[in-house]
What we know:
The chain is mainly β. The chain has strands at 3-7, 10-12, 18-25, 33-39, 46-51, 58-60, 68-73, 78-83, 92-99, 106-108, 112-116. Strands 2, 4, 5, 6, 9, 10 and 11 form a 7-stranded mixed β-sheet that branches. The radius of gyration is 14 Å and the shape is globular.
Amino acid sequence: QVQLVESGGGLVQPGGSLRLSCAASGFPFESYDLSWYRQSPGKAREFVARQVVAGDKTEYADSVKGRFTISRDYAKNMGYLQMKMLKPDDTAVYYCYAKKPWYLEYYWGQGTQVTVSS
């Protein structure tokens, strides 16, 4: 059974940090690019960060560049999103997304809520 399960969300004050985790199972995680997306109420889901399998290159949305870091542990089938200097605008449901390069094979997690508020 294919699963992507996010965890680590919660309530944090502006300027604080959180680390989101994404546990993958049921598919060859090491062959899939890993991305994080987020969605705020009333807004479309937006790209946050990506780490591709080829060379482990990373890319980030301009809004999070320098504050967020994507990483993965292939041995544990885990993906992470380290978030620092959080702002209220970062409040959203964060989703883990795994896609096999060049193929229409992809999976979404169920999401984890991040709320940045004082």
